[in-house]
Amino acid sequence: MTLRLCCAWIFILLIPSLSDGGKLLVVPMDGSHWLSMKPVVEKLTERGHEVVVVAPEVSWQVGKTEAYTVKTYPVSYTVEDLDNNFRDYLAVHLKDLPFPLNTLAMYNSSVHAFHIFLAQCKDLFRNKETLQYLNQSGFDAVLTDPILMCGATISKYLALPSVFFMRGFPCNLHYEAAQCPSPLSYAPRLFTFNSDRMTFFQRVENALVSLLEPVYCYGFYKEALAFSSEVLQRDVSLLDMFNSASIWLLRYDFVFEYVRPVMPNMVFIGGINCAEKKPLPKEFEAIVNASGEHGIVVFSLGSMVSEIPMKKAEEIADALGSVPQTVLWRYVGKSPHNLPKNVKLVKWLPQNDLLAHPKTRAFITHGGSHGIYEGICNAVPMVLMPLFGDQMDNAKQIESRGAGLTLNILEMTSQDISTALKAVINDKKYKENIKRLSELHLDRPIHPLDLAVHWVEFVMKHKGAPHLRPAAHDLNWIQYHSLDVIAFLLAVVLLSLFISLKCCLFCCRRCCSKKGRARKPTKAKSH
Amino acid sequence: MTLRLCCAWIFILLIPSLSDGGKLLVVPMDGSHWLSMKPVVEKLTERGHEVVVVAPEVSWQVGKTEAYTVKTYPVSYTVEDLDNNFRDYLAVHLKDLPFPLNTLAMYNSSVHAFHIFLAQCKDLFRNKETLQYLNQSGFDAVLTDPILMCGATISKYLALPSVFFMRGFPCNLHYEAAQCPSPLSYAPRLFTFNSDRMTFFQRVENALVSLLEPVYCYGFYKEALAFSSEVLQRDVSLLDMFNSASIWLLRYDFVFEYVRPVMPNMVFIGGINCAEKKPLPKEFEAIVNASGEHGIVVFSLGSMVSEIPMKKAEEIADALGSVPQTVLWRYVGKSPHNLPKNVKLVKWLPQNDLLAHPKTRAFITHGGSHGIYEGICNAVPMVLMPLFGDQMDNAKQIESRGAGLTLNILEMTSQDISTALKAVINDKKYKENIKRLSELHLDRPIHPLDLAVHWVEFVMKHKGAPHLRPAAHDLNWIQYHSLDVIAFLLAVVLLSLFISLKCCLFCCRRCCSKKGRARKPTKAKSH
């Protein structure tokens, strides 16, 4: 009897979970992008949803867990191809070329690096078994990092509502596709390194960059667009591909990002990657404890960059020797010959747990958004050495908040690094500023992970979020900017003026002619 | 020993509450506006903050509880003056005047009604004891409904950060002051009754109304501005008064409001007034149970409107007799002689609890935002009889969502009311639409009350939210719209064109003159 009751109780408890459980397709982006999406996928699985991550057989990060289902498909490249592709991409960013050659080289390297991911998407759509599986699985929604367009193409191909999870497109597409105004006067464009407080010529630069954006973004996505058009059997534009997102989960927090207009279907989950502090592994605990009153400095150029040219490494090593702190440097390449005693090279480090340690005095980072949010969450002032992508803009944002100092990795000398590091460690204002940012960031009504999970579940449950879609999507450019209304009102005003003028002239003429006629007889009389 | 431990434990539990507790000044708006702010004030008090509501000795709603401290000040009017003032205001809205006389009459009545509230503010600043109390109390922040400007003036006078709690200003000031773009092409202005999907001429109307807004808003606030300038001892503009809000707690939810751009310091707490369902008082329970299979209709024109002209009341009574439902009508005036048997007049009704009852088939409402959100929360289709203020726009919004029907209270006949009521009760689409709105509205990551409380506490704790203030506040109109940048770029383009043209002409001239010289000798030879 007790067993029966117990079973009945379990059954009752299970019903809501099963009836609420949905089926989610995840189309991720490999590399560091996956790091913040992974906890969302794991939590959704934990909450009883059937979550399937569709991933290439060859990848850096995706698929190395059993916490969720991974559906792989064969690809036409190897992991060495992936590594070489990224190495070539990085190498261009470490070459000291003059402007505009550097910009052109970086742009070309981005387009080239993109090719391998496009090939991945083509491989997916070529694989009949995967396609059949996707078509027959009856998913409720797609969760994707849309930067490579493959997830957006799949969601359109399967006619499923989508949730976009990302930091942003390089050319403001996440705002444009969401119909969100971006005032050029205080919303700086990516790659300008401007803040939200711009001089006149910075605003001119911002306007020029915004004019160039459609050109370079189209160049970047040209082939991907052609492929999506082929898959969807109709011509699609960039905006077509991205304007159907039900919810934009943006890894933003305005303690770090510049304040600007947003849209109601944008949900801000910046800091989602900040994990709870876990105890340090023994070997790291020992190093930290041995660091004495000076504490430690954490140094990592991110999960993707393991080594840098030897000359740079030597310069950095030289500078690190000038501080009394113990420096934990994540570095896979050959050890610099001048490595000082206070620097420990490690192949991997528990970054968040080290940053959370009270003995950590500074964080030397490449300025990737994940690392920056970990720095903010744990209130550690930063020295930033941006390498590629949005990193220079991120670094400038932290600098503009007074919470760190930025170095140009191509031009920095050993002295520059040493000065910057000493400043963020010893000048109290950096610690105070990052502490304030941290307090503001962590004082939130709901954790970003719960927020992200809520909105993915919302889209799965309600088959999208059409009530958050602005009517602006149904307007053309002229209507959106009210140019037709302005033209009409101007025409009315001008016509009214013209008619009034004509009436006045007519009246004047009548008066004059009357006067004239009235005078003529007088004249005649006077004659 | 046990008692000691217990006391120590209580003490430990109390410490965070006391140390976290702040001091909040609340400057409310009387009438229905207070209904949704009250739970926030109560919850903040519950959470250990010292909350002081500063209110006039004479008021409709504020101060009738012991859940928080009320600091009253004497005023120069009586409650009868308040009642008469509102009665005059309402009477104008029930007069059937032709356009534009009706608009002018309504505008004048609003300005007139505003005077008594301005007098209230003047009484506050005249009362030395109250002023001294405010100056010496060391508040952390001000929570206010800013529509009457008194709360904004006090927060500026005391140099305190402020949280604005409201539905919105009549002339888009809540967007303008927050530097939020309002595209005229799909963000309809109040009093146009347009939706976000407008025809060309509706967009023209929207543009014209937006041009008129500064005029009528200035007229409305002229005297209040002069008074604020006197108090603050400097000339202040409307935007000066409202652009310093740290957080805008807007009673918005996009299942009901039209989707449009917003700002990061806007927090949406629509539906905050929907209380949890409580059991019905016995007399109402009996009426509802006796209604049989047909159920009931809830009818209220809001907490402010207790009676309407007898002719209207008779028309309505006549229509209510045409449905088989029992109608619970909140009505204080003289009973219409033709009151049908199925209609029960009551002086007060538990609106939310009645709407939450499964036997409720429809809700006849004036379209105040509180009632509408209760209708949405409880998924009851509505017949809307808007009277004044934003009610017509609210009603049109519900109608555009297919969740109700709007009647013009001046023109409606008994037949119109009957047809509309029967439609929302019997046509399933209204129930389905409001059910969908309700599901979307209630599927939120955090309750609006908790969200409001969080952000008030945030502002108290961090002395504002300067990280959410856009840099646009530091730009003038020309800079904000990049007009200087456009002029500069145009000048550069024109100058470049001019120089290119001059160069071309110069080259052409040189070529021609060379040819001319080359030809001349030939000509000479031929001669």
Automatic annotation (TrEMBL), chains A, B:
Q: What is the membrane topology noted in the UniProt record heading this document?
A: Single-pass membrane protein
Instruction: List the InterPro entries hit by this protein, alphabetically.
Output: UDP-glycosyltransferase, UDP_glucos_trans, UDP_glycos_trans_CS
The UniProt entry lists the main location of this chain as endoplasmic reticulum
Keywords tagged on the record: Endoplasmic reticulum, Glycoprotein, Glycosyltransferase, Membrane, Signal, Transferase, Transmembrane, Transmembrane helix
Q: Which GO terms describe its molecular function?
A: glucuronosyltransferase activity
First-tier enzyme category under EC: transferase
Q: Point out the signal peptide segment.
A: 1-21
Catalytic activity as recorded in UniProt: glucuronate acceptor + UDP-alpha-D-glucuronate = acceptor beta-D-glucuronoside + UDP + H(+)
| Pfam families for this protein | UDPGT
Location of this chain's protein in the cell: Endoplasmic reticulum membrane; Membrane
Residue ranges of the TM segments: 485-508
Q: Which GO terms describe its cellular component?
A: endoplasmic reticulum membrane
Tell me which stretches of the chain form a coiled coil. none
Q: What is its EC number?
A: 2.4.1.17
Family per record? Belongs to the UDP-glycosyltransferase family.
Q: What is this protein called?
A: UDP-glucuronosyltransferase
The organism named in the record is Columba livia (Rock dove)
